[in-house]
Design a protein that fits this description.
Butyryl-CoA Dehydrogenase, subunit A, domain 3; about 180 residues; mainly alpha; 8 helices; elongated
Length: about 180
C-alpha cells in the first residue's frame, strides 16, 4: 500500500513538474498572438514587432493594455519630434524653413494632445474615438511633410524618419483600436 501511495505521489509530482515545461513549448502567452495578429495587418511586420516589443510590458499585454502601449509610443515619438522641432527653431534659418518648422510644431502639438486624449479615453474605457486620434497623428506628420517638404529639408532635419515613424505607429494604433469593444 505504501508503494502505491509513493507511486501516486511520484506521478503527481512528475505531472506538476511537466506542466510548466509543456506550457513553455507553446508559441508563448496570448499576447504573442495578439502582437503577431496586429503586426500581420501592417505592411511593415518587423518594424511593428520591434516597436511594440520596445516596451517591456508587451509580453504580458492584453488587447486593452496593448492599446496603451501603442498610443504611448506615438505620444513619445510626437513629443520627441516636437522637442526636436523646437530646438531647430532656436537657430536662425531660411524664413521659409522657419515657417515650415512652425507648422510642424503646431501639428506635433496637436498630435501630442490627441495622444493624451486617447490615454484619457482608454482610462475611461471609451474606445470609439481611438482610431480618430491615431488619424490625427498621421495628419500631423503629413502636414509637417507638406510644410517643410517644399524646402527639401526633411531628411537633413531628421523629420522624414520621425514622420514615417509617427505614421507607422499610428497605423498600429488603428489596428489595435479595432480589437477593443
Amino acid at each position: 500500500m505504501a508503494t502505491l501511495h509513493l507511486a501516486c505521489c511520484s506521478l503527481s509530482l512528475l505531472l506538476l513538474l511537466l506542466l510548466p515545461i509543456s506550457s513553455l513549448m507553446t508559441d508563448g502567452p496570448p499576447s504573442v498572438e495578439i502582437v503577431r495578429g496586429v503586426c500581420n495587418q501592417t505592411a511593415y511586420y518587423t518594424y511593428c514587432i520591434n516597436a511594440l516589443y520596445s516596451d517591456p510590458r508587451t509580453p504580458n499585454a492584453d488587447h486593452y493594455f496593448l492599446a496603451y502601449i501603442s498610443f504611448g509610443l506615438v505620444f513619445a515619438n510626437a513629443s520627441n519630434s516636437l522637442d526636436h522641432v523646437s530646438l531647430l527653431l532656436k537657430s536662425p534659418k531660411d524664413p521659409n524653413l522657419t515657417r515650415g518648422l512652425q507648422v510642424c510644431q503646431g501639428w506635433y502639438r496637436r498630435s501630442v494632445t490627441a495622444m493624451l486624449s486617447a490615454k484619457s479615453d482608454l482610462d475611461s474605457h471609451s474606445f470609439s474615438k481611438l482610431a480618430s486620434y491615431a488619424g490625427q497623428a498621421v495628419r500631423a506628420a503629413d502636414e509637417c511633410e507638406a510644410a517643410v517638404g517644399a524646402t527639401s529639408s526633411l531628411p537633413a532635419l531628421g523629420l522624414n524618419i520621425r514622420n514615417r515613424d509617427i505614421k507607422r505607429l499610428s497605423y498600429i494604433c488603428t489596428i489595435v483600436s479595432r480589437l477593443l469593444p
